[in-house]
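Quick note —
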Amino acid sequence: MSSIATTPQLAAWLAADNLDAAIEAGLIHWEAQPGDETAQAAQVAAAGQRLRAALAARERHRARAVRLRRIAAERDARRAPAASSGVAPALPANVAAILARAKAKATSGGQ
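Predicted structure written out below.
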């Protein structure tokens, strides 16, 4: 893009609902010039402001989506079982004692 279209050109595209042409012609960078018709300049300025607001909203949405994916990945990583090394984890002493008594009772026939 070598230059920004004139206010009347941009206003005509906006009036014809040809927003793509206005954007390609530099709507986002448009600035009012001395001698611009007030109504056209106001129309183009409002369209440029709406475009900037929409682009900012899109960027916020994208950033939020990235943040939510990162949070989900971190949550999934915390929930994932630890890689097993083939060794059963050690039981706490009181649980090991209860288990030993239960095994002893089971091997002795429950007496």
